[in-house]
Specification:
Length: about 700
């Protein structure tokens, strides 16, 4: 699409009752990010109330019409997805604005390849719009969904704001609280916005080189209307309220929330540590893989129905509507001469319509079978079901399906195939338990029992846990220098490494309550297969696997590398030097901040040019921090902090396994080093390309 153009959704697909809108971008430095937001507007071009503003502190609509999903790593950056159930958008809403903003002093001119895509309920991409040069704006309206003669259309906008998220929301009539939180409040109270309308005049829009705030859509005049002052309409009050003061409604808070750490568990009443508490989902009776699959499916599906926020969190990403959910196990469905029994069925009712998904589960590292999944896809297509969901320990890679199935495009009814890993299920449960909340103690306890079940060694739901059959031969080939470029076993190891890094991000993000994503640096336009082949060739030459993680509120990218020649893991982070002050003050303050960090932490000064700066262990630098100053007076541009650890030698999930050692190394580095550092500073000139990360 081009800027200002529009398209009717019904002309593109028959499955547009629910759609997924994805906003994406790439970062040349590998550390850029943005946050999405949605505004529901009435005929006057403003929100009906503050509750029509959805963003990171208010991500889900009560009626299920809007759900901000998690970020998804893409080939060259991130993609933020939003689920819309257009069948339940209130009739008084004429327009749905989709925007994104950058936090703090960052602006969109620092990002590349800004784009918005829209896909239907079966995951087919219907349209794409690339935003032009955004210049130095901190918020952009990417596009909007709007009604025209009873049908939904999408319009490409690509319009910038210099006033950020708060300014954009205010221009559409939202009463914003832009101050940081000063106390720890209940999560439910924080995320609930007031039902009253805006009570003060909105600010005049700040024009930028990209245009002014978008006016009501028009097929004949697609460009935004000229800037004008938007006056908010005070909400009416009942007569009974006049005599008594009203508690002011909570205003949307654009300052990002800080998740409070979980409270300490109560002391057990057991006589000694050998007493084990009774569990809702026992594991001792699980003797076979079939038992594990049946129990895991039943436990998960039952908790999804009893904890609606958890169930919605999992199904919204698959284009499911928000409604009454029921789940079933061991359902018999006809298929030729032999009936098929999918492990589970999910049905959601909304406005008299049913959304149905078949569930195929694998545990204990067992692989999905292509013929089974193909049979369920055929059954779903014949019966008019919407999706087939596979659930296993494996982690799907972008652009590489776990199971190759044949999809008959001639059929009028199309079925979506989605994959979910057990690591993702545990991640979502952990986020809700420890950081976001689910509404009451009983639901929290149910989620805790589910998480305990998933994490138990006998459940078989441990996520990705095996580097594959190529791992040992590749390690041996690197050690004896017999591994050649083009060896397919190296490509298999690279794919396993990518799966491992995605799982490490899920586990760390669940513990922190923050987004943790892989940060990939590749040339724009490079496809998935070509990139992995290049990394495989590099593995053959250098004997190293490397990746970067982007953690919200961390001062830089966290780098993890495995040197297969030396058998060591290196976790590190580069932080920029302060803008002001003296180098000696910088290093003294850094050493003080790291007072509780491990003594074997390596600290290196990064200097201008290609020269190598002074370095040393924290144990040696604590009494003599001045040893980090270059002797020739070269300017310090930043610091690199690194921890070294021996990596596991086996491919599996034993204590000595490689996967366990990588997970432990990242967790130790973040909790013992990164947490002691200051948050990200305002953006400055990037550090010289000195890291040992593969580009």
């Amino acid at each position: 699409m081009t800027k200002g153009s529009n398209a009717a959704l019904s002309a593109l697909s028959e499955n547009t009752g629910s759609v997924i809108v994805s906003l994406g971008w790439s970062s040349p430095a590998g550390d850029g990010d943005a946050d999405v937001s949605v505004l529901l507007l009435g005929p006057n071009g403003k929100v009906r109330s503050d509750a029509d503003f959805y963003f990171y502190n208010n991500p889900v609509a009560a009626d299920g019409s809007v759900h901000l999903l998690d970020k998804t790593p893409t080939e060259d950056g991130n993609e933020d997805r939003i689920s819309f159930d257009l069948t339940v958008v209130p009739p008084e809403v004429d327009r749905v604005v989709v925007a994104a903003s950058r936090y703090g002093d960052a602006h969109f001119g620092e990002l590349d390849d800004l784009r918005v895509t829209l896909s239907d309920a079966v995951g087919e991409n219907l349209l794409r719009f690339a935003v032009g040069d955004p210049d130095k704006v901190s918020a952009i309206i990417f596009g909007e969904l709007y009604r025209r003669e009873g049908e939904w259309k999408f319009r490409a906008v690509g319009q910038g704001y210099a006033s950020g998220l708060a300014g954009l929301a205010t221009d559409f009539g939202v009463d914003i609280d832009d101050e940081a939180e000063t106390s720890e409040e209940n999560d439910e109270a924080e995320t609930t916005v007031g039902d009253a309308g805006a009570t003060a005049p909105a600010a005049t829009p700040e024009p930028t080189g990209n245009g002014d705030p978008a006016g009501p859509p028009s097929d004949a005049s697609p460009e935004p209307d000229p800037a004008e002052t938007l006056n908010a309409v005070p909400a009416p009050r009942r007569a009974t309220d006049e005599a008594r003061p009203r508690k002011p409604a909570a205003r949307p808070r654009t300052a990002k929330k800080r998740a409070a750490p979980p409270s300490a568990p109560q002391k057990s009443l057991g006589e000694n540590d050998s007493w084990r508490p009774a569990r809702l989902f026992p594991l001792s009776a699980l003797k076979s893989d079939r038992d594990r699959e049946m129990r895991a499916t039943s436990v998960l599906l039952s908790v999804m129905t009893q904890v609606p926020r958890f169930g919605r969190r999992l199904t919204a990403a698959f284009g499911a509507p928000s409604g009454r959910m029921e789940t079933f196990t061991e359902v018999s469905l006809p298929h030729g001469d032999t009936p098929r029994r999918p492990d589970g069925v999910i049905r959601i009712e909304r406005a008299g319509k049913l959304w149905t998904a078949l569930v195929e589960t694998k545990t204990n590292g067992n692989a999905l079978k292509a013929d089974q999944v193909q049979a369920y896809m055929d059954i779903a297509a014949r019966r008019g079901y919407e999706a087939v969901i596979t659930l296993s320990n494996d982690v799907a890679l972008e652009g590489t399906p776990l199971v190759d199935v044949r999809i008959d495009r001639r059929r009028k009814h199309q079925v979506a195939l989605w994959h979910l890993s057990w690591a993702e299920v545990a991640h979502q449960a952990q986020l809700l338990i420890r950081h976001e909340g689910v509404g009451n103690a009983a639901r929290t306890w149910l989620l805790q029992e589910l998480l305990h079940y998933l994490q138990h060694e006998n459940s078989g739901c441990h996520g990705f846990q095996n580097m594959g059959s190529a791992w040992v031969p590749v390690r041996n080939g690197i050690n004896d220098e017999t591994l050649c470029q083009g060896d397919p076993r190296a490509l298999e190891v690279v794919e396993s490494w990518e799966r491992l890094i995605r799982q490490v991000c899920l586990r760390l993000g669940g513990e922190l309550g923050q987004k943790v994503l892989p940060a990939q640096r590749v040339r724009r336009g490079t496809d998935h297969g070509t990139r992995r082949i290049q990394l495989a060739d590099q593995l053959c030459l250098e004997g190293r696997l490397q990746a970067q993680l982007r953690v919200d509120e961390a001062p830089g990218l966290l780098t993890v590398g495995a040197d297969l020649r030396t058998g060591r893991l290196r976790t590190s982070i580069e932080i920029p030097a302060p803008e002001q002050g003296y180098p000696l003050s910088w290093v003294k303050r850094l050493v003080r901040r790291l007072a509780e960090a491990p003594a074997d932490l390596h600290v290196e000064s990064l200097v201008e040019g290609d020269a190598q700066g002074p370095r040393g262990t924290l144990e040696r630098l604590r009494p003599e921090p001045a040893d980090l100053l270059p002797k020739n007076g070269t300017q310090i541009t930043g610091f690199r902090l690194s921890l070294l650890k021996g990596m596991g030698s086996t491919r599996g999930n034993a204590e000595s396994g490689f996967i366990r050692s990588v997970d432990d190394a990242v967790h130790r580095f973040y909790t013992s080093v990164v947490v002691h550092l200051d948050g990200p500073a305002p953006r400055r000139t990037p550090l010289p390309s000195r890291s040992d990360v593969t580009r």
